[in-house]
Design a protein that fits this description.
136 residues, mainly alpha, 61% helix
């Protein structure tokens, strides 16, 4: 609330930006734009990556669904050596794709807080569809 907007005003502004971006990128099949939800990526990496490659008209290769943790470790060590320190971000790259953060709000928010958010975001859920409302 740093800008002084209430939540719905902020969401309306964010939606206008999102709509403008969608208009510029295009939407739908053949638009060159593909949205992949993080929960889909971590829950079914192979399926999400297959959709991405298909959208790019690239062939499937099983390696795209795997992460080379040895290479990731080498890159992290290089960053640590160059910067002279480790960081939370650098450490988190040891697990670049993980399911822990999906739905973590359920263990953080009280039932009352979750109900308030659901009520406040109802117009947004209505616009985005059932998938979003069901995930919250």
């Amino acid at each position: 609330d740093k800008r002084g907007d209430d939540l719905l005003a902020f969401l309306a502004a964010a939606q206008r930006v999102w709509d403008a971006l969608g208009d510029r990128l295009g939407r739908g099949s053949g638009s060159g734009y593909l949205e992949i939800d993080y929960s889909d990526l971590v829950g079914s990496t192979g399926t999400a990556m297959a959709a991405l490659l298909s959208g790019l008209d690239e062939p499937w290769h099983a390696d795209v669904a795997e992460i080379d943790l040895c290479a990731t470790h080498r890159e992290r060590e290089t960053v640590k050596r160059v910067t002279g320190r480790d960081s939370h971000t650098n450490r988190s790259l040891a697990r670049p794709i993980f399911t822990d953060s999906v739905g973590q709000w359920r263990s953080i928010l009280s039932d009352e807080e979750a109900a308030t958010i659901t009520a406040e975001l109802a117009p947004l859920y209505e616009r985005l569809g059932e998938r979003w409302a069901a995930s919250c």
